[in-house]
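Feature request, filed as a ticket because there's no other form

It would be nice if the structure record came with a short human-readable summary line next to the tokens. Right now we just get the raw output. Example of a typical job, pasted below so the devs can see what we mean:
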Amino acid sequence: MSNEELTREQTTEAAVEIPAEETVPDASVETASAEEAPVSSNGEQIIHFNYLNADLFKDIKRVGAEDLSVEPEEGSLEQELLDSYLDTFSDISENQLIKGRVIGMNEKEILIDIGFKSEGIIDRSEFSEEELPKVGESLEVYLEYLEDRSGRTVLSKEKADFMRRWKKLREVFDNETVIQGKITKRIKGGMAVDLEGVQAFLPGSQIDLRPVRDFDQFVGNPIDLRIVKLNEARKNIVVSHKVIMEESMKEQRDALFEDLDVDQIMEGRVKNITDFGAFIDLGGIDGLLHITDLTWGRVGHPSEVVSLDETITVKIIDYDRDKQRISLGLKQLTPHPWDNVADKYPEGTKINGKIVSMKNYGAFVELEPGVEGLIHVSEISWTRHVKNPSEIYSMDEEVEAVVLGVDSDERKISLGIKQLQDDPWDALQDKFTIGEVHKGKVINLTQFGAFVELEEGIEGLVHISDLSWTTVVRHPKEFVEKDQEIEVRILEISRENRRISLGVKQVGDDPWPEIVKEFASGKEVEGEIIRVLEKGIILKLDKGIEGIIPFSRKSKKERKSLMGKYEKGGTLKGVVMEVRPDDKKIVLLSEEVGTSNKADVLDDVQSFLDSQDAPAGEKIEIPQDGDPETVEPEATDESPEESETE
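Raw output as currently delivered:
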């Protein structure tokens, strides 16, 4: 409203508010002449309403408060004026559909009258030349902005079309009706579909009942769809063609389940392949052919046996009508391979097979699909101590073996490889004689001794007590090294236990008879302190012999004092009291230590020796390291007792 109009309106209101007796003179009042009108300081006349002509107000109607509460009569002039006035108002807000009338256009914009204080504009590019409206034509448009930065009212024809289409799609979704769309392009995860101007998403898994491998074949084609998800806020739509197909197949599935029977043989098409099996289309209903039911043999992946779209014959193993699940089998169409295994593979038969699995206790060999035998580690070599078959063989390697036994009830076949060769232990006694000296190579060191290879595949054990006559060896590595060549004497050959006992010290003569003479009783000797213990002191004498000085019957306090007095590396003198070849020790007396009483020392010697780590002369039980008959298998999830045909 302009300033002039505002002033006029205010003047009119002021005139209305003036009391009637002041603004409308009575007819009987005489009107003053212009000459009688008062004059202002600048000489101009001041005219009041009282001095105006009364004829000016003859058409003014005086309205009281009681008149305002009366409704105008239908068809009266007052009602027509009121209706015309109310039509000038409209409830207009942004983001809604409104009606308008084309009132003009130029090269860029089209002007629309929407009953607002200013006209709205639509970009002309939203219309094609064929759709271009004419002046005076009514349109339904979408109000984007009542006022943009330039103060213009912005409208959109395209968004109006979208909103009308969206409203229809909402009805389609609510009523769960079928709508037709056109696939426009392939996108990540599926296809983009045009629903008459509204873009929708068709997931790849919802195009067909079976997995689609070629999505491009659908581009540009119309397709019937069902709206399965509609997001009003984001204006997102997800559609599906699969649900329509599933509904049409429901009656067919129900009919198929009514005719199903266990052990029934049917034909089907491979619809999908997964890591755990294949899904077979039986003509409207899917069944699972599990990987374990594909073949009697081992299968790494179902695709090794079946391929997509292949037609195969299967057997119904089981089904659940309520859950509509069917379990199928392919291997069940052929006889079980174990039915005549005992006749096909009698004991002593030589076979060829492929290694299909390896455990720490042996290797499984496939003789034919579904029939496997176990080569235990103890049956791989006559002479070599095999701890794991992977030391010799690899997966899928072809091997030759001998059947050692068949257990049809347990479905186990025992195989052997070493039986393909003669047992070298049969002729071992002809090659090696007890007492002979041979050269060999140290191939392994253990806590209890050293394994020495006499020839390829033939090993013997040098026990720790047979390494030295005089030195107390606490570990073989103190005396020999791995891969070192040494001379050994054969002490024992046991074919039954497949064991050869060797000796290193026996290669030379026993020095103890001479040592006894050299270290006569009463002889004073001096040695280096190598150990100070709670029960005595150990010295290193000439020729590497150990001498011991027991603390005898001393109190704990005296022993503690002596242990603090003597240190490793020092020297100490003593007198030979006794030589003990079996213990590789010489017992000494020492006045300095305070052990000069022979009786007390002799009583304490054995206790001192027993407190040491196993003396060199003491024989200990030799573990059969590497012996397949006695070595415990390493910890594993499976044991040799488990079925070889797992």
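Something like this underneath would help us a lot:
The chain has eleven helices and 30 strands.
The longest helix spans residues 157-175.
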